[in-house]
Specification:
Helix content: over 70%
Shape: extended
Structural class: mainly alpha
Strand content: under 5%
CATH superfamily: YheA/YmcA-like
Number of domains: 1
Order of helices and strands: HHHHHHH
CATH topology: YheA-like fold
Number of strands: 0
CATH class: Mainly Alpha
Length: about 130
């Protein structure tokens, strides 16, 4: 869209076009590409995937137990130790690092949008307890 077209176009249409351009730019960014590669590597490691899935099931069970006040402190410590061991796996460590870097970029983008429109965009768009 040219600047002349943008000046006469509906502001909502312009905003959506620019949002799509922003999405493409994020998709082409180094943090996004690194995350994609790390995620693909994680998904390709069947053994690690199974271990991670089993951990997540136990973690969810523990979370439910905690919400009812019935979590055994030793179980909590055991889960923490298990995560520490899992997180040492180079494929998982790379995925976590790449995800952290991508989230940093997305927070910066949310901050820039918020600055531009005069509100805390991340807080306004995040679900309760959200990431931003």
């Amino acid at each position: 869209m040219t600047s002349t077209q943008a000046a006469t176009a509906d502001p909502t249409t312009v905003a959506l076009d620019r949002a799509r351009a922003l999405a493409r730019a994020i998709g082409e960014s180094a943090p996004f590409r690194a995350f994609e590669a790390a995620q693909e590597a994680l998904e390709a490691d069947a053994d690690l995937g199974a271990r991670l899935q089993a951990f997540q099931v136990r973690e969810q069970e523990l979370r439910l137990s905690r919400s009812w006040g019935g979590a055994d402190p030793e179980e909590v410590r055991a889960m923490e130790r298990e995560w520490e061991e899992l997180a040492k796996h180079p494929v998982l460590a790379a995925q976590v690092a790449a995800r952290t870097e991508l989230l940093g970029l997305l927070r910066e983008v949310a901050g820039a949008i918020g600055e531009g429109v005069g509100l805390d965009y991340g807080a306004a768009c995040a679900p309760a307890g959200g990431c931003c």
